[in-house]
## 1
Amino acid sequence: MDKNRHIGICTAGGDCPGINAAIAAVVRYASSQNIRMTGFTDGFGGFIHGNYRDLTVEDCIGIERIGGSILGSSREKPFKPEGSDKPVRIKTMYDNQGLDTLICIGGNGTMRTAYRLSEKGLRIIGIPKTIDGDIWGTDRFIGFDTALSTAVDAIDRIIDTARSHKRIIVVEVMGHRTGWLALCTGVASMADIVLIPEIPFSLDIIATNASTCYRSKGYAIVVVAEGITVSGDWKGSSGERIAQMLGVCTGMETRFTSLGYILRGGAPTAADRILAERAGVYAVDLYMRGIFDVMVSFRGDVISEIPLAEIAGKIRNADTDRFVLPHARALGISFGDDYI
Ligand code: F6P
């Protein structure tokens, strides 16, 4: 092992299937290049609290098929509160360990933190993961395909019971502040109505559309992103509120299910494993080419990198989509707006 070449790796933010496939790819490829690997546990917390361990090929055997992260994750925010000594502790650990780069597998918040750490002198390579689809600067992310497949499988099952009982069923999916997961789930499931934060909706319009679908096929499926805005001082889940209001407005039997954390686990799909493994290998290649302070980026199947400075603080919103959204409209899926 070349002791002068030493990469650290951590996973931060909400976990998702495929992270372990990325870790395995990084470790296998780096080890083949005689690069030492150290894994820091529980996101940036591992740096702050000194929790880390060597990572070898043997540690990674078979993990590509397992959800979650063998390193654990956290939502540790080193720069909050402003002025805390955590960034200095992270830099000290980075230097004391003799790291010459850190690979961070994470989403928006992680890339923002990574960028600020790069300004403190850490050399960072980001790998995008999220079930929300909201990382700016890339259109593929580890975890999204698996979460989408899980959501679509769940809705296939829900349609069975909606049809049998002649009901309107509202299904809420995660997505944080964007509607990508709900949009893609709705298209793949041919849902009747999809509500996302990026498109304001009218209750009257969704009630009318739900009633029309119900009369034509005896049931209706409404996919709701968790981040939509519902009226009044409602504090519960958005989807539950939509189900309540639809039941009142249509007079039809209405039920609600939130898929929640089911979408965060499970064995990664083959597509997610391939994406994660490609990103892991590419990240090590960037290191060997001396390219840092970037995030691995996908434009379709094309892999490249984008500076952390360009993406920090930005969010990728679903209404900017030029592909799935127009197709959803063409399929007659209602977004609860007055689109004709
Ligand atoms: O960012 C992934 C995500 O699952 C979001 O979709 C969701 O809103 C959030 O994490 C939940 O956060 P936590 O895991 O901290 O409860």
Note: The mean pLDDT is 96.
## 2
Amino acid sequence: MALVLIEDHPRLRASLCRGLNEAGFEVEGLATGQEALARLSRRDVDAAVLDLGLPDVDGMEVLSRSRAAGLLAPVLVLTARDAVEARVEALDRGADDYLVKPFAFSELLARIRALLRRAAAPRWAPLAFGDVSVSADPRVVRAAEHDVPLTPSEHRLLGFLLRRRGDTATRADILREVFGYDFDPGTNLVEVHLAHLRRKLGATAVRIETVRGAGYRLSLPEGASRDP
Ligand code: CA
């Protein structure tokens, strides 16, 4: 597994690289945004851990430019910024998860393993429900006859809900099947991604309903056909 770790603080970078190595990962440590952009533009990255506060190109910028250039590998963002807005912005720009500094190394490890598990999840055939459909490639949702781009996490989440065909999925199901967590990471990943998807499906007949105390499910107006 080829991990890329972008962290400008030399001691932290060295200790994280050493720990990840000891945990069995092949890890490459980088110190600047420029190096990160160059490295992430190559195809042989399994996952990236990206510090947001970098001396040259900001981590947010590295993230959006790499996603725009076609990076599909999962990205975990490290941030000292405890503001909710910064975390939401990182997810919005295509991060798969985030960890707020300072963190325990064991937690970083658990999250990286979760990222890699979900990246290894099987690909699936095109799926449709009402006037919404998604395909594995390109990562767009066909929504009310328009193509709307999705981040990799949104794509997995929508695919998961479409496969349920209107059955309720619990938050724990979503954390496990979409995000690879067999524990509650204590973050608002599920809620943030659902909010984005609701917005992107706004022009369609499909709704993501909250089933109080149970979870989430797709629904269509009375009488609408589930099959396109
Ligand atoms: Ca930093």
Note: The longest strand covers residues 2-6.
